[in-house]
Design a protein that fits this description.
It is a single chain. The chain is of the alpha/beta class. It is 48% helix and 14% strand. It is built from 15 helices and 9 strands. Strands 1, 2, 3, 4, 5, 6, 7, 8 and 9 form a 9-stranded mixed beta sheet that branches. The longest helix has 21 residues, at 256-276. The protein is globular and about 65 Å long.
C-alpha cells in the first residue's frame, strides 16, 4: 500500500478518533479525585436547586430529603399560584428553604415546556450564592441525583483543596435506542473532564461558595454554554479545579423532538463559546483548535467527504467504531455500531446551525453572551494562586 494511501486510509482516521477517545491518557492525575471508604464526609455545605416553569421538573425530592434546611429551592417571583402551592408544599414537608427572586427576562413564558435559553437559571444561582453561608455548595438540577451521598462528594472536594469541581454525568430516561446512544455520547464527553476538569457540567457542579460567587458576578448569564463559561471564568481568574470520579444521574430527552430542540440549542451555545468568545479560549489552544477549527470551521470539508464518498470515509467509520469499542469495552452492545452515524448527525447536521441558533437566542434574550473576565479577585491574588 502506498504511503500516501496508508496515511489517508488509516493514520488520519486513527488520529482524529484518538482525539475523542484517548484523552484520559493525558489526564493530570493530581487533579482527579476518587471517592471511597477513606473519604471523610463534610456536612458544611448547602444545595442550590433552580426550579421554575413547572413543578413537575422537581424530580429529585426523595434524593434531597435527607438534607432538609440545607436545600435552597431557587425560583422566580413570576410563577403561577399552582406552582407556588406545589413548591411550598414540598418545602414544608421536607424542611427545604425557598428563595423567590425577581427576574425579568425578555420574552419569558411560564409553562410546562422546558426552556433551552434565557438568563433565569443563572440569575437565580447568582442571587442564591449571595445568601449562602456555608463555605461549600453544590448546584444540582431538579432532575439530577448523585450515586454517593453528597456528604462524601463534598468531603472529597474539601480535601482536594480546589475551588470548583466537575463530575461525570450518566444519562437516565425511558429505555430505547436514543438513550443508549446518549449514554455512549456522555461517556465520551465526560472523558474530557479528566484532562480539562474546568469543563463543569450544568446539571451538577460543586464549588467553594466564595469562588462560585466571584465567578457568577462576572457571568454573562447566557444559558447555553453557561457551565463551560463558569469553568473558563474560574480558570482565567486563577481558581483551581478538580474532577470527582463519581457518577451523577441526570434525565435526558427520550423523544426525537425534545432531543433535537436541545441539541440545536447546544450547537448555539457551542458557537457562542468557541466563536464569539474564542479570545477567552486562547488559554486552552488545544480546545480552541479542536472545537473552532475541526468541529466548526472544517464542516464544509466533512460535508464534501460525505457527499463525495470514498474508501477513506469507510475507513474513518471502521477505525472510529473499533477504537470506540476498545475504549468503551465495558459497555459493549450493538448500538456502538450506530454511534459513529449518530456523531455524524451531530457534526454535519446540527453544528452548522449553531450560529443561527446563537443569533436567535441572543436576540430573543437581548444578551450576546460575551464573556468578560475582568480583574482577578483580591482573595485569589492574596492566596498566591
Amino acid at each position: 500500500m502506498p504511503a500516501a494511501l496508508l496515511i489517508a486510509v488509516v493514520v488520519l482516521p486513527a488520529a482524529v478518533a484518538a482525539i475523542d477517545l484517548l484523552t484520559p491518557l493525558f489526564a493530570d492525575r493530581e487533579r482527579l479525585v476518587d471517592i471511597g471508604p477513606w473519604t471523610r464526609p463534610c456536612q458544611d455545605f448547602e444545595v442550590l436547586v433552580p426550579i421554575y416553569g413547572s413543578i413537575s421538573y422537581l424530580e429529585n425530592v426523595e434524593f434531597l430529603r435527607p438534607y432538609g434546611s440545607r436545600v435552597l429551592l431557587c425560583t422566580t417571583d413570576s410563577e403561577t399560584d399552582e406552582f407556588y402551592a406545589g413548591l411550598m408544599s414540598v418545602a414544608r414537608a421536607h424542611g427545604f428553604r425557598v428563595m423567590r427572586q425577581e427576574v425579568r427576562e425578555a420574552g419569558r413564558v411560564t409553562g410546562a415546556r422546558r426552556r433551552v435559553s434565557g438568563t433565569v437559571r443563572d440569575c437565580l444561582i447568582r442571587e442564591a450564592l449571595r445568601i449562602v453561608r456555608a463555605p461549600y455548595e453544590v448546584c444540582i438540577d431538579a432532575d439530577t441525583v448523585t450515586k454517593e451521598p453528597l456528604e462524601l462528594l463534598m468531603g472529597a472536594f474539601r480535601d482536594s483543596g480546589r475551588d470548583f469541581a466537575s463530575v461525570r454525568l450518566v444519562p437516565t430516561g425511558a429505555p430505547g435506542l436514543l438513550l443508549r446512544l446518549q449514554r455512549h455520547e456522555y461517556r465520551l464527553a465526560m472523558r474530557r473532564r479528566m484532562t480539562h476538569p474546568w469543563m463543569v457540567s450544568g446539571a451538577c457542579h460543586i464549588a467553594r461558595t466564595e469562588a462560585h460567587l466571584a465567578i457568577m458576578e462576572r457571568h454573562s448569564l447566557f444559558f447555553q454554554g453557561n457551565d463551560v463559561e463558569m469553568g473558563l471564568l474560574g480558570d482565567a481568574l486563577g481558581y483551581t479545579s478538580t474532577h470527582l470520579r463519581t457518577e451523577v444521574l441526570t434525565t435526558v430527552p427520550d423523544e426525537l423532538g425534545p432531543w433535537l430542540r436541545q441539541r440545536l440549542a447546544w450547537a448555539g451555545g457551542e458557537f457562542r463559546v468557541l466563536g464569539v468568545n474564542a479570545f477567552v479560549l486562547l488559554r486552552h489552544p488545544g480546545v480552541l483548535a479542536y472545537g473552532l477549527g475541526i468541529t466548526i470551521a472544517l464542516t464544509p470539508w466533512r460535508w464534501h467527504s460525505v457527499v463525495a464518498f470514498s474508501w477513506p470515509l469507510l475507513s474513518v467509520y471502521l477505525v472510529y467504531a473499533g477504537m470506540l469499542a476498545v475504549c468503551d469495552r465495558r459497555h459493549l452492545d450493538w448500538t456502538l455500531l450506530c454511534y459513529p452515524l449518530y456523531a455524524v448527525v451531530n457534526g454535519l447536521v446540527l453544528v452548522p446551525f449553531g450560529w443561527i441558533w446563537y443569533l436567535k437566542m441572543a436576540v430573543q434574550d437581548r444578551n450576546a453572551g460575551v464573556i468578560r473576565v475582568g480583574p482577578r479577585p483580591a482573595a485569589v491574588r492574596s492566596a498566591g494562586r
